[in-house]
UniProtKB/TrEMBL annotation:
UniProt entry tagged with the keyword Transferase: yes
Pfam family, any one: Phosphorylase
GO molecular function: glycogen phosphorylase activity; pyridoxal phosphate binding
Gene3D superfamilies: Glycogen Phosphorylase B
GO CC annotations, alphabetized: cytoplasm
Family named by the database record: Belongs to the glycogen phosphorylase family.
InterPro entries, A to Z: Glycg_phsphrylas, Glyco_trans_35, Pyridoxal_P_attach_site
Protein name: Alpha-1,4 glucan phosphorylase
Main EC class the enzyme belongs to: transferase
Protein keywords: Allosteric enzyme, Carbohydrate metabolism, Glycosyltransferase, Pyridoxal phosphate, Transferase
Record PTM N6-(pyridoxal phosphate)lysine, positions in chain: 653
Length: 818
């Protein structure tokens, strides 16, 4: 089943689009215009399938999942849409014939960077899998005017530049003003009796905005299914009738205009960190309220009994960010649909399911009740009532146990605790990797697990092979298809069929040749974008992910400093040349990028080590360059402090592209090693049990290591003796101090960097020994690909469907098929 592609028709369509959009011919148009024209031509192919899919859903009145997420890190759409329509190669050919280079055209598209990191990208992978598997699904999020900032590196520092991704227009989106909804903030709640004597609650003297949806197509692979990502924009209620307002209302009109402008202005660039800003809560309620209103309106088109809403809709809450969903749904069901509390609660608690993505304390969302009740007065009343009833339950179940109430109540200490709200009102709570779910059950959410064991389940994350292999690594994708056929594209478990080739020396050579080509491609990218020359024959050792203390980029760079010392002391050291590649955006203020860049500067310019060590910080790491980076990696650095990384998904993308994991027993690394075998990865460091034990005991003494390990001491002293910052030797004193000294409530070496240092250095040695054995390495790398099947987001989605969402697959027929 595929799209019937007519090359001449497509070429004509591109030329026509250039004419209609820009009054230009192909020769006259610039690259951006060509990108737009090609995108509209591809959108044209999508459109029939999109219409057919939505018609089918309506006709069959399907049960639907709404994936509620503040973040969708979609990346570029054009290439992925062509891949999933199965017309990538056809279009490439057609464009070739027109004298146009598809790679250049794809490069014109800005990434849709509506997310920070793993959580947002996971949402994007899930949408891809849902469409490919043929499940009715919507993503609901926010159409931020500015997505994740663009990163520039100046003088070693990260500079954040606004990402005006909509500047040239977004060719794939469709504005749907006819499905707009009002969302209200502030004011007060008036209670009155209706004609039946029942209490009615209305919000008065509020400020409001109009939520206007933009639809983005989510194309399934080769199956005619096109689902929808709805991203909400905010418009003022009364831009057009300002004149009609009297003096009193004028002020309010301006306020509402500003509210609309501000609310969707920018994505908060925090990964795994909660900042508690009022505007953030506004964003959350804004998209949640609009999305629920839309779902209910859609439901009512084909169903009459709102008491059965949960039979047709399930809301998956991507972390606590959209948790206000439970209270907003209660509000709408009661205040607007006329249900009583029990009826509304019955629906809500069968509708909402919550995914936890972290155990990091600083990521836990807690809103001061002052703020929450001021912004959402009616919703707050409902949260209070949920809390009151739940605390009653706790008192019955655990009489006299104040500690349970303190830990489990939804409102406590003047704060609304969003995770508790999600767990109390949700019917499912899941972690994102086996180890993570175990930690939730045994530690972080122990009390809830004891009370509601049936709600808890694990869903190990996954990634879409369509983007991260088929699109990102075409050479390897073709090679795999040549060996085992192309079933892997929609069923990644087929990769295991590659196992029969791992000892075949010809296959090994082919495989390593592809890796080499991909390393050349990355080397070229690095040269063009960073001006650094790297040796494609060196080991590409890569750590790309958000900059975060718990992810321990610091451990990595300290080890590079150590290696450099070794090489200087012993120039004949028999180790392969290595290139350490970093890529990461930081929350403002985290200075580690400066250290990495300064170390890079010193090492890369030292002729004494004869190019055997290079360090590169790739500027503006994002989905589009990630695809190039994963394909070229030899070693995948997954070195978070055990217990801290809930899952990780980059780890899976590296594995799928044939890199060996050098990592801790954390997150999904545990399952990666289980799949590929201990010989085909290198594991080091404290276990999560050990970390948790140390934490409970108040830490460990890093001074002991400082005193006894000369190599570690040398590296640490280099942080404060100007070795990596001649003009300001004090530059890295903070880092030095944080590793050795307690500071107020903060333990020295909070993330056990020095504790794990030796084990990490040994792990690197072990990895290099493996690399020296060419055939052994090729075999291990191939086994990583062959064993990556489990980590497809298709598998993850099938588990969500089976255990939580209970959806049926849908078939979509389109008339232009082959
Ligand atoms: N930062 C986890 O830290 C996980 C993703 C997706 C994270 C990461 O280990 O793979 O979610 N958590 O589940 C949060 O964002 C809160 C992440 O991306």
């Amino acid at each position: 089943m595929g799209v019937k592609f007519d090359k001449d028709e497509f070429k004509k369509s591109v030329a026509d689009n250039l004419k209609v959009l820009y009054r230009k011919t192909v020769d006259e148009a610039d690259k951006q215009q060509i990108f737009q024209a090609v995108s509209y031509s591809v959108k044209d192919i999508i459109m029939d399938r999109w219409l057919a899919t939505q018609k089918t859903y309506e006709k069959e009145d399907v049960r639907t999942v709404v994936y509620m997420s503040m973040e969708f890190l979609m990346g570029r759409a054009l290439g992925n849409n062509m891949i999933n329509l199965t017309v990538y190669k056809d279009i490439k050919e057609a464009l070739d014939e027109m004298g146009l280079d598809l790679n250049v055209i794809e490069d014109q598209e800005p990434d849709a960077a509506l997310g920070n990191g793993g959580l947002g990208r996971l949402a994007a992978c899930f949408l891809d899998s849902l469409a490919t598997l043929g499940y009715p699904a919507y993503g609901c999020g926010i159409r931020y005017r500015y997505g994740m900032f663009k990163q520039q590196i100046k003088d070693g520092y990260q500079i954040e530049v606004p990402d005006n991704w909509l500047k040239d227009g977004n060719p794939f989106e469709i504005k749907r003003p006819e499905y707009s909804y009002e969302v209200k903030f502030g004011g007060y709640v008036r209670c009155y009796k209706d004609e039946d004597g029942r209490d009615k609650f209305v919000q008065e003297d509020y400020r409001s905005v109009i939520a206007v949806p933009y639809d983005m197509p989510v194309v399934g692979y080769g199956n005619n299914v096109v689902n929808t990502l709805i991203i909400w924009d905010a418009e003022p209620v009364n831009t057009f009738n300002l004149e009609s307002f009297n003096k009193g209302d004028y002020h309010k009109a301006i306020e509402q205009e500003n509210l609309a402008k501000n609310i969707v202005e920018v994505l908060y660039p925090n990964d795994n960190h909660y900042a508690g800003k009022e505007l953030r809560l506004k964003q959350q309620y804004f998209f949640v309220s609009a999305s629920i209103q839309r779902a209910i309106a859609k439901y009512k088109k084909t169903n009459s009994d709102i008491r059965k809403f949960h039979e047709k809709y399930v809301f998956q809450l991507n972390d606590t960010h959209p948790t206000v969903t439970v209270a907003e749904l209660m509000r709408i069901l009661m205040d607007e649909e006329g249900l009583n509390w029990e009826e509304a609660w019955e629906v809500t608690t069968h509708c909402c399911a919550y995914t936890n993505h972290t155990i990091m304390a600083e990521a836990l969302e807690k809103w001061p009740i002052e703020l929450f009740s001021r912004l959402l007065p009616r919703v707050y009343q409902i949260v209070e009532e949920i809390n009151r009833r739940f605390v009653e339950e706790l008192k019955v179940k655990y009489p006299g146990n104040q500690d349970k109430i303190r830990k489990m109540a939804v409102i406590y200490d003047g704060q609304v605790k969003m995770a508790n709200l999600a767990i109390v009102a949700g019917f499912s709570v899941n972690g994102v990797a086996k180890l993570h779910t175990e930690i939730l059950e045994k530690q972080e959410l122990k009390d809830f697990y004891e009370m509601f064991p049936e709600k808890f389940n694990n869903k190990t994350n996954g990634i879409t092979q369509r983007r991260f292999l088929l699109h990102g690594n075409p050479l390897l994708a073709d090679w795999i298809t040549g060996k085992i056929g192309d079933d892997w594209i929609t069923d990644l478990s087929h990769l295991s069929r590659l196992k029969v080739y791992v000892d075949d020396e010809k296959c090994q050579r082919e495989f390593m040749q592809i890796k080499y080509q991909n390393k050349l491609r990355l080397a070229k990218y690095i040269k063009e974008n960073n001006g650094v020359e790297v040796d494609p024959r060196s080991v590409f050792d890569v750590q790309v992910k958000r900059l975060h203390e718990y992810k321990r980029q610091l451990l990595n760079i300290l080890h590079v400093m150590y290696l450099y010392n070794q090489l200087k002391a012993n120039p004949d050291l028999d180790i392969p040349a290595q290139t350490f590649i970093f890529g990461a955006k930081a929350a403002a203020g985290y200075k580690i990028a400066k250290l990495i860049n300064n170390v890079a500067d010193v090492i890369n310019n030292d002729p004494a080590i004869k190019g055997r060590l290079k360090v590169v910080f790739i500027e503006n790491y994002r989905v589009s360059n990630a695809e190039i980076i994963f394909a070229a990696a030899d070693v995948s650095e997954q070195i978070s402090t055990a217990s801290k990384e809930a899952s990780g998904t980059g780890n899976m993308k590296f594995m799928l592209n044939g890199a060996l994991t050098l990592g801790t027993m954390d997150g999904a690394n545990v399952e990666i090693v289980q799949e590929v075998g201990e010989d085909n990865a290198v594991i080091f460091g404290l276990t999560s049990d050990e970390v948790i034990r140390y934490e409970n005991e108040g830490g460990y003494d890093p001074m002991e290591i400082f005193n006894n390990d000369q190599d570690v001491r040398t590296v640490l002293m280099q942080l404060i003796n100007g070795e990596y910052c001649r003009e300001n030797p004090e530059m890295f004193r903070d880092i030095y101090n944080s590793l050795l000294h307690n500071d107020g409530g903060r333990r020295a070496d909070t993330y056990f960097i020095l504790k794990d240092f030796r084990a990490y250095a040994d792990a690197h040695r072990k990895m290099l020994d493996k690399y020296k054995d060419e055939k052994g390495w090729a075999k291990s790398a191939m086994l990583n690909v062959a064993c990556a099947g489990k980590f497809s987001s298709d598998r993850t989605i099938e588990e969500y469907v089976r255990d939580i969402w209970k959806l049926d697959k849908v078939k979509v027929e389109v008339s232009d098929e082959d």
